[in-house]
Amino acid sequence: MTMNIQKTVRVPFSAVVRRIAIPLIVMGAAIVLPFLLPGDRWVRVAALALIYVALASGLNILVGLTGLLDLGYIAFFIIGAYTTAVLTARVFVDGLGFDPDELWWLFPVSLALALVLSAVAGAIIGYPTLRARGDYLAIMTLAFGEIVRIVSINWVDLTGGSVGIRGIPPLSLGGSSPTGTYYAVLLMVVVILIAVAGLVASPVGRAWVAIREDELVASSMGIKTKRYKLLAYMCGAAVAGVTGVFFAHMQQFINPDSFTLEDNFIVLSLVILGGAGTFWGPVVGATLWIFFQAIARDWAIVQEHPEFRTGILALIVIVLMIVRPGGLVRRRLRLTRARHDAGSPGDGETPAPDPRRPRNPGAPTLQVDDVSRTFGGLSALRGVTLQIDHGEIVGLMGPNGAGKSTLLNVLSGVTPPSSGRISFEGIPLDRADSADVNAAGIARTFQTVRLFWDMTVLENMLVGAHGRLKGWVPAFVLRLPRTAKAERAAADEARRLLAFVGLGDREGELAKSLDYEGQRRVEIARALMTRPLLLLLDEPAAGMNESETRALADLIVRIRDAGIDIVLIEHDMDLLMGVSDRIIVLDHGVVIADDIPEQIRKNPLVLEAYLGSDA
Ligand code: ADP
Ligand code: MG
After folding, report:
1. Does residue 380 have its Cβ closer than 6 Å to ligand 1?
2. Which residue CA neighbors atom 10 of ligand 1 most closely?
3. Taking the model in full, what pTM does it have?
């Protein structure tokens, strides 16, 4: 493999066209739409479709990207709508006697206030749901949605109760005609979609998708998963809140009947129908549905039984889930703005892992002191004491069920130890979670490969860089140059590491489409991407043939030579004996030997452990 051959740029022309042309065509169609529609009624339908596009895109952050459920999403929409209705119509017009036509300056204030209030509500609903799962989560979000709706009915002094609030000034982009309103809402939708796309193609979006795909791995890449779930709730809620403000001004009147329990399910259905987790899915789902609904309004059967419309939606969703489970749109969202078209990584130089954080020179690398772990009555680890020194590859062996993986889980913060102490570079880690452990400089791979399967290789790698790409949400939304530069630097680093593990030209492939050896290598490279001082490998050669195993041994040695210590669990004795500087043997959760490979080979306790249990 030569590194200094200039690779050709491999971005197909059609991909570029699609990336730029589709948004432009859709945008153009949306701009001319009011002139093509047969009358004001249809322009109002189009504006309503845009409201639902915004709502579906906001809910998509939760349901589609992060994999969180919310059956009470409309609550945030209600909060936004009432915020502006109360502030504008009740306080400024009724209370302070302002002329509604002169209140244009209040609109941005309403927007900002609604954004903050709905985001706070999102945090309030999000916080308890972080602990709840499945059914409980569904009920909690549903209950929260109903609480907000019931408050809007019964807090008469504030909301006008069931009568609602009238006299909300109209949206005015070129007068208060339906067309002017449509363009105002269109502007909102465009801003929301660009903001969401910007956020998704940033460390935030990758953290969300990583959580959806594999929360444990996300955490072991240094992502504080609870924080990002909360952020997803806040962002989703803020989108709904802003949309609520536009909706209130569009209707100029709101009351509790403007929002029904059913709307929660409709918006959720639209996300699923269009394609959860995609960019265009919510847009397509919402547009098709609202126009369909407006057409169906003229049907005799629907005029007699309006609830038929929702019934039809339910039917469509069910049928679609059978024939096209992913929804109408399948195109993946881009999770980075870095191009998937690497030139050659570092002309001519041999790629190697980038410099890491400085070591704490006095402290031992890893110190494990009398660590035990029980599962119910079973002792998976009993009084394990060991130390890893700088510059070592330490092999960890033992029969099946000896506790090797459990030890790795305990070291990496996946499983807390039942007792004992762990410190790394002088930092106590026995109470740390996976994200803390990773931040301290320990990275790991898993016994069964665990990649983010729906991400590209490069995106997987960039998740590994999460810890050094942090930033403010607005900075990602606005795509500030500084964050873009950091992202490009991380992508370059990813390319060097991919070349280092022998996958120099695979960055654009989906993880799930890689061959098995490639997946193993990406998992190692992704762990290296977190710039660890210590790398824990759980049976990396499992399922590999002989030549693949030899190549892996070579890679492991090169990682150690780059200054990263390694703990290696392996069943392949040739590999383990060949690369390890020292081997620790576990049996029934107890360390029975800790020595150089030549001594381990003839250690009677080790021979007995293997003959006694496995042979
Ligand atoms: P190894 O990796 O050495 O094959 P493990 O660490 O996976 O062994 O397992 C050690 C013992 O702990 C086994 O008896 C296993 O069944 C048990 N064990 C591991 N994880 C759990 C768990 N989450 N719950 C209950 N028992 C577990
Ligand atoms: Mg294991």
Report:
1. yes
2. 403
3. 0.90
Tell me the per-residue pLDDT of 254-310, one tens digit each, with 9 for 90 and over.
988 888 888 888 899 999 999 999 999 999 999 998 888 888 888 877 778 877 777
Cβ of residue 409 lying under 6 Å from some atom of ligand 1 = no
**What's at 467, amino acid-wise?**
G
Residues 241 and 148: their CA atoms lie apart, in Å, by 13
Torsion angle of C-alpha atoms 230, 234, 237, 238, degrees rounded to 10: -170
| pLDDT score recorded for residue 176 | 66
Which ligand lies nearest to the CA atom of residue 409 in the structure? Answer: 1
494's CB contacts (< 8 A; 6+ apart) are 458, 461, 462, 464, 465, 507, 525, 529
Q: How confident is the model at residue 14 (pLDDT cuts 50, 70, 90)?
A: confident
| Helices and strands, number each (H, E), in the chain | 24, 10
CA distances from 383 to 91, 369, 374, 586, 600 (A): 68, 8, 11, 11, 21
Is residue 237 within 6 Å of ligand 1 at its C-beta?
no
Mean pLDDT, the chain, integer: 88
The encoded tokens of residue 542 equal 């499992």
Which residues 6+ apart lie within 8 Å of 306 measured at CB?
none
**15-323 architecture in CATH?**
Orthogonal Bundle (1.10)
What is the arrangement of strands in the sheet containing 419-424, beginning at the earlier edge strand? 378-388, 366-375, 419-424, 427-428
